[in-house]
């Protein structure tokens, strides 16, 4: 078991001078002024930081505003291009529909030409055979 300390209260206070002594009115006023000045300085520093942050946020918002304006112009140009492409596509579809009947006629003529080529080949073969028999 440890021995209890037998130091008196007065010797404890002696180790911390000014800690437990009553303060005078002048000391209290000075301490109050010091606290007020420290608080004012702290608030001024906080104000400076907040003002700086506000400036940065304002600059960021201006940058975003400028980026939005550029993006808006680009999307308007893309929209205009898309509308022109849609109009051109519509014209192409109308032209194709108008040509569709002609394409059917071209297909028919092409088929008839193939048949004529086949007949011409048969006639050519017949002429060769006749020529061969005539020479023999």
UniProtKB/TrEMBL annotation:
Biased composition (Polar residues): 1-13
GO molecular function annotations of the record: gamma-tubulin binding
Region (Disordered): 1-40
Entry's family note: Belongs to the BLOC1S2 family.
Protein name, as recorded: Uncharacterized protein
Source species: Dimargaris verticillata
Coiled coil location: none
Pfam family, one: BLOC1_2
An annotated GO BP: lysosome localization
